C-alpha cells in the first residue's frame, strides 16, 4: 500500500486551505470531475496555489491517475 505524500502548497494557498473547515475540505477533495473517466472522482497527490484570487488544487484522479483540478473560488 503506497504512502501518500503531504500536499505541497504555496504559503497563501496553505493559509486559504487551512481556513476551510476540515469536513468541507474533505468534501471538496472527494468531488472533482475527471474528463477522462467522465464522472465525479476524488483528487490525490495534489498541490495548491492561488491563481487569480482563487485556490487551485492540481493533482491526479484516484481512478485513472489522469490530471484533474479543483478551483475553490475566493471570497
Written overview of the protein:
This protein has 75 residues and is of the alpha+beta class. It has one domain (8-72). The protein has helices at 11-18, 22-29, and strands at 8-9, 32-34, 39-41, 43-51, 54-61, 67-72. Strands 1-4-5-6 form a 4-stranded mixed β-sheet. A two-stranded antiparallel sheet has the order 2-3. Strand 2 and strand 3 form a beta hairpin. The longest helix has 8 residues, at 11-18. The mean pLDDT is 91.
Q: What proportion of the residues form beta strands (DSSP E)?
A: 35-45%
- Largest sheet, described in full? 4 strands, mixed
Number of domains: 1
In the predicted model, the low-confidence regions spanning at least 5 consecutive residues are none
How far apart lie the N and C ends?
38 Å
What is the subunit organization of this protein? Answer: single chain
Count of DSSP strands: 6
Report the mean per-residue pLDDT as an integer.
Answer: 91
Spatial order of the strands forming the largest sheet: 1-4-5-6
Radius of gyration: 12 Å
Helix amount: 10-25%
Q: Give me the number of helical elements.
A: 2
What sort of overall outline do the alpha carbons produce when their principal axes are compared? Answer: globular
Structural class: alpha+beta
- SSE sequence, one letter per element: EHHEEEEE
